[in-house]
Every structure is written in structure tokens, then in C-alpha cells.
């Protein structure tokens, strides 16, 4: 009798974990609309387990072409990613530990990571009306970058697990130095 009860309990637990896993592994997406059909989206979906670790990918699109880039998985280190426009016109995603990489939305292509893109400014700029490019304020922390916004994991706010906060609503967070 105890064996049968144990078996039913085990099956019930397995069924609950399966349902939890099915719910937990859906993808969540945050999108930055950059105008003229240009869009950058970050999607996250849970790694196996009942913790807050994520698989991540970035999708870049100019309205005609798109490309998907697999990002490093977040196993607790990710504190968000800043999106910038470089003075040359390319876009830059600062990934903190994983460094910076650039992409071109005119031809939809991803470039190799470049440490020059994450070059810190010699001094932190004070808030105020800084110079801008395409309406984006100059970065307070990095040379020749203009802050577009910040992708960040949320605390399950309204079922949304990743959020893009544009520069007008969130001040530029300083990310730790690239490892």
C-alpha cells in the first residue's frame, strides 16, 4: 500500500514539475524601435531549473532584412545590456562581461567584438544637456557612444521578464568593466 501511495505521489510531483517547466520555458522579448523600420529585440528563455538563469538572443532588423545573434547565457552575471549608437553610425551592444559588439542596421550584419567600442571616457560626464546624435544623448561613460537605452531582466513584473528602457525613461547605468 505504501509503495502505491509513493508511486502516485511521485507521479503527481513529476506532473507538477512538467507543467512548471512548460510555463517557465517560454520566450520573453523586449524590443527597441529605432525608427525607419529599424528594430533591436532581445529574447530570453529559462535554462533548465527553477532559478533565474537565461538563454539569450538578439534579433536585429531594418524592416527588410533581419539577423539573429545568440548571446552568452546568463548564469547570474548579467546585469543588463546597454544599447548605443556609435559616432560612425553603427550600433553597439555593451554586454558587460561579454564585452561589446557592433552591428550595422543598414546592411544588417554583426561585426566582431572590439574593445575600442567599450573605451571608457577619461572622465564621467555630468548629467545635463549633452551633445546628441539622432536624438540620443552622448554616453556619460564611453567615448563616441550615444545612449539609446537598456535591456534588463525584470522581477517578473506583469509577466514580463525582460524590458527595454529607452534613454528618456532610464538614465544610463554604468556597467562594470569588461573582463
Plain-language structure description:
By secondary structure, this protein is mostly beta strands. It has one helix and twelve strands. The strands form three sheets. The protein has a six-stranded antiparallel beta sheet with strand order 8-7-6-5-11-12, with no helix packed on it. Strands 1-2-3-4 form a four-stranded antiparallel beta sheet, with no helix packed on it. The protein has a two-stranded antiparallel ribbon with strand order 9-10. The longest helix has 23 residues. The chain is elongated and about 75 Å long. The chain starts with a helix and ends in a 13-residue tail after the last strand. The relative contact order is 0.16.
Instruction: List the secondary-structure elements in sequence, H or E.
Output: HEEEEEEEEEEEE
> Count of DSSP helices?
1
- Indicate the low-confidence ranges by residue numbers: none
- Overall morphology: elongated
- Strand segment tally: 12
Biggest sheet layout? 6 strands, antiparallel
What multimeric state do the chains show?
single chain
Beta-strand fraction estimate? 35-45%
Question: What's the SSE blueprint?
Answer:
Blueprint: H1 2-24, E1 28-35, E2 38-46, E3 54-61, E4 66-74, E5 81-86, E6 91-94, E7 100-104, E8 109-110, E9 132-133, E10 136-137, E11 145-157, E12 160-166
Summarize this entry quickly.
The chain is mainly beta and 179 residues long. It has one helix spanning 2-24; strands spanning 28-35, 38-46, 54-61, 66-74, 81-86, 91-94, 100-104, 109-110, 132-133, 136-137, 145-157, 160-166. It is elongated.
Amino acid at each position: 500500500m505504501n509503495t502505491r501511495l509513493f508511486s502516485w505521489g511521485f507521479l503527481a510531483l513529476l506532473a507538477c514539475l512538467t507543467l512548471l517547466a512548460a510555463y517557465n520555458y517560454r520566450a520573453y522579448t523586449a524590443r527597441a524601435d529605432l525608427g525607419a523600420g529599424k528594430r533591436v529585440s532581445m529574447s530570453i528563455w529559462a535554462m533548465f531549473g527553477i532559478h533565474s538563469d537565461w538563454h539569450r538572443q538578439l534579433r536585429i532588423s531594418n524592416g527588410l532584412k533581419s539577423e539573429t545573434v545568440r548571446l552568452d547565457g546568463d548564469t547570474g552575471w548579467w546585469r543588463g545590456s546597454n544599447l548605443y549608437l556609435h559616432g560612425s553610425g553603427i550600433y553597439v551592444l555593451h554586454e558587460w562581461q561579454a564585452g561589446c559588439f557592433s552591428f550595422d542596421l543598414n546592411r544588417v550584419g554583426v561585426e566582431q567584438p572590439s574593445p575600442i567600442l567599450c573605451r571608457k571616457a577619461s572622465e564621467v560626464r555630468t548629467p545635463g544637456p549633452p551633445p546628441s546624435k539622432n536624438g540620443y544623448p552622448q554616453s556619460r561613460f564611453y567615448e563616441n557612444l550615444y545612449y539609446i537605452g537598456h535591456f534588463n531582466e525584470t522581477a517578473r513584473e506583469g509577466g514580463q521578464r525582460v524590458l527595454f528602457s529607452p534613454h528618456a525613461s532610464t538614465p544610463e547605468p554604468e556597467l562594470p568593466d569588461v573582463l
